[in-house]
Amino acid sequence: MTFSIHGLAVSRGIAIGRAVLVASSRVDVAHYFIQPEEVEAEIARVRAGRDAVVEEIARLQASISRMGPKEAPTELAALLDVHLMLLQDEELVSGVKHWITERLYNAEWALTTQLEIVARHFDEMEDAYLRERKADMEQICERVLRAMKGAQSSVVQPAQRGSRKGSQQDLLLDDTVDVPLVLIAHDLSPADMLQFKQSVFAGFITDVGGKTSHTAIVARSMDIPAVVGARTCSQLVRQDDWVIIDGDAGVVIVDPSPIILAEYGFKQRQGELERGRLQRLLHTPAVTMDDEKIQLLANIEMPEDAQHALKAGALGVGLFRSEFLFMGRHGKLPDEEEQYQAYKKAVEGMQGLPVTIRTVDVGADKPLDESVRDDAHLNPALGLRAIRWSLADPAMFLTQLRAILRAAAHGKVRLLIPMLAHASEIRQTLAHVDQARAQLDRRGLAYGPVQLGAMIEIPAAALSLQLFLKYFDFLSIGTNDLIQYTLAIDRADESVAHLYDPLHPAVLRLVADTIAECRAQGKDVSVCGEMAGDVTLTRLLLGLGLRSFSMHPAQILAVKQEILRSDTSKLAAWAQRVRTAEDPALELAGGYV
Ligand code: PEP
Ligand code: MG
Q1: Which of 214, 297, 457 to mutate to test the pocket of ligand 1 (most atoms within 8 A of CB)?
Q2: Residues in domain Phosphotransferase system enzyme I N-terminal (predicted)?
């Protein structure tokens, strides 16, 4: 039966495909596709994990049987029998094999997927005793997962399948050949999302998350339809259900009727045509009708993204979120050489265009690893994140600074510091940059000049602009956090997403003042938060004086189209009206005349 689920629209377009559910587990589980020739080895890994748990249980049983009848814990003995029985459960064993063989899931993914299916069957059982065995099943699966993790000698590198079409794997996918897949999960960390980059998924849905959560940002950078904050979606949808994602409306339609499918198929083709039309603007300079030149830059997460940035017509990278190099590394952070190579790759990839590298911004909704996700802190968004984290670990910070400075020998590099608020933090940061240079001098390593910039993403920073303008060559407005901190709305929390408002007069005032002050002092200023790539806000930002926008490459052409149709001389007065209106959204919707 068809039903729909409403969430938040985070990445445009329509995706139609079969659901792939990623089960959440208390154990940190990697999800990736294997190669067909790895199927046997992957099945063997699950078997080895299961055998290890069977042995563990047998050892426990043996020690119980050595106890005298008085001290032997009979309940535990009975429980171990149940666990042994569940480990042989036919539905579990054959299901795991199915996901590995037919869908090429890695062993852990196959096990958690099947666990979820089996767990639902337990939920549906009439008998209360049997229903309670669900917890046992979960326990033994977690033990198997842990055993598999322990047996793993090195970090598993996900083998991504570039495209399913025409690939060898298709032969193994039988009825699913060429059927697009959409990924559904309760939650995905930004590191998970990165793993799914270049994967086969046609769209993403998560139960939790806000519009500018980092998971949503990565989905947007992949330019595939996505909905977050879909609440109970991962519970309502079942593996292999047909699903439509309407990324523009933030709606998920499950098990659509043929009429609905046809309607969305039409919408999908219309969207593709529109994107095709935009390609004509690729080589057109971003100049307004009154001849104002606008700089369109790209936000990237990995060095390889530089090529997408160039292809999309970006005139440089306005934000390289370097923290993505640090995530999902199981505690082993990239050393100076690895970072240097990564930054150099991005710099060389941009072929002489400037690359703005932001120092790590981990913490809050960007944990380094799932396993170290720091829920212990009551309020991680206000905690040790970004520059605070860097200054708390000077060795790590200096390593990154040296790597960036060395990469600057290969092209134009701008160094950007996130989340600054205090003069003392600014002074400490600058001292670290000097120290990194001195260390490179001592080692005789080449490095290049960098322009130094600060992100304006804490209201306190926006309200102390003179301090920032004194020390920095350029400023970049991080509207995602600026909105979060101005309005006290967690950007990753879907339950308050309706209050996350880029058009709140307070936010507009901070953005407008920052732009105006930078312009008055002849300093470069750009917006690199999601506002920059939102076509409904392009004219407003132009009217407020913004001339440099940094966004995901996929949004560049649509923003350029707005710029080509704009006349900044007519926008300034209107933008001030919007900024000072009681309800700026209403004023904005009225358009400028
Ligand atoms: C921002 O806060 O607007 C920004 C660009 O940084 P991030 O989204 O990575 O926090
Ligand atoms: Mg930020």
Answers
A1: 457
A2: 6-133
The secondary structure element, H or E, covering residue 162 is none
Q: Is 233 an annotated catalytic residue? A: no
Q: Residue 477 CA: which ligand 1 atom is closest?
A: 3
- Measured CA to CA in angstroms, residue 257 lies from 33, 226, 244, 284, 475 at distances of 30, 21, 11, 42, 51
CA 72, CA 409: separation in Å to the nearest integer? Answer: 70
For the CA of 361, the closest atom of ligand 1 is 9
Distance 415 CA to ligand 2 centre (A): 15
For ligand 1, whether the C-beta of 478 sits within 6 Å is yes
Q: Could you tell which of 322, 481, 511, 525 is best to mutate to test the pocket of ligand 1, judged by most ligand atoms within 8 Å of the CB? A: 481
- Contacts for 109 with CB less than 8 Å, ≥ 6 apart: 22, 29, 30, 31, 32, 99
List the catalytic residue out of 141, 233, 518, 528.
528
321 lines ligand 1 (CB under 6 A): yes
For 101-147, the DSSP string reads: HHH-B-HHHHHHHHHHHHHHHHHT-S-HHHHHHHHHHHHHHHHHHHH
Asked if 187 contacts 219 with a C-beta cutoff of 8 angstroms, the reply is: no
What is the homologous superfamily of the domain 36-151 according to CATH?
Answer: PtsI, HPr-binding domain (1.10.274.10)
Q: Ligand 1 centre from 38 Cα, in Å?
A: 39
Per-domain residue ranges of the chain = 3-22+159-274, 36-151, 290-589
CATH tag for 290-589 (out of 2.60.120.10, 3.20.20.60, 3.40.50.300, 3.30.70.20): 3.20.20.60
The reply to whether 528 belongs to the active site is yes
Residue nearest to atom 10 of ligand 1 (CA): 481
Q: Does domain 3-22+159-274 have CATH number 3.30.450.20?
A: no
Sheet holding 251-254, edge to edge: 3-6, 251-254, 242-246, 14-22, 181-185, 201-206, 226-228, 8-11
Tens of each residue's pLDDT in the chain, 593 residues: 899 999 999 888 999 999 988 765 555 677 788 899 999 999 999 999 999 989 888 887 787 777 666 666 666 677 788 888 888 888 888 999 999 999 899 999 899 888 888 888 888 888 877 777 888 888 888 889 888 877 653 322 333 333 333 222 332 233 344 678 898 988 877 767 776 766 678 999 999 888 888 778 888 888 889 999 998 898 899 888 999 999 999 999 999 999 999 999 999 999 999 999 999 999 999 999 999 999 999 999 999 999 999 999 999 999 999 999 998 777 789 999 999 999 999 999 999 999 999 999 987 777 776 544 445 557 889 999 999 999 999 999 999 999 999 999 999 999 999 999 999 999 999 999 999 999 999 999 999 999 999 999 999 999 999 999 999 999 999 999 999 999 999 998 889 999 999 999 999 999 999 999 999 999 999 999 999 999 999 999 999 999 999 999 999 999 999 999 999 999 999 999 999 999 999 999 988 76
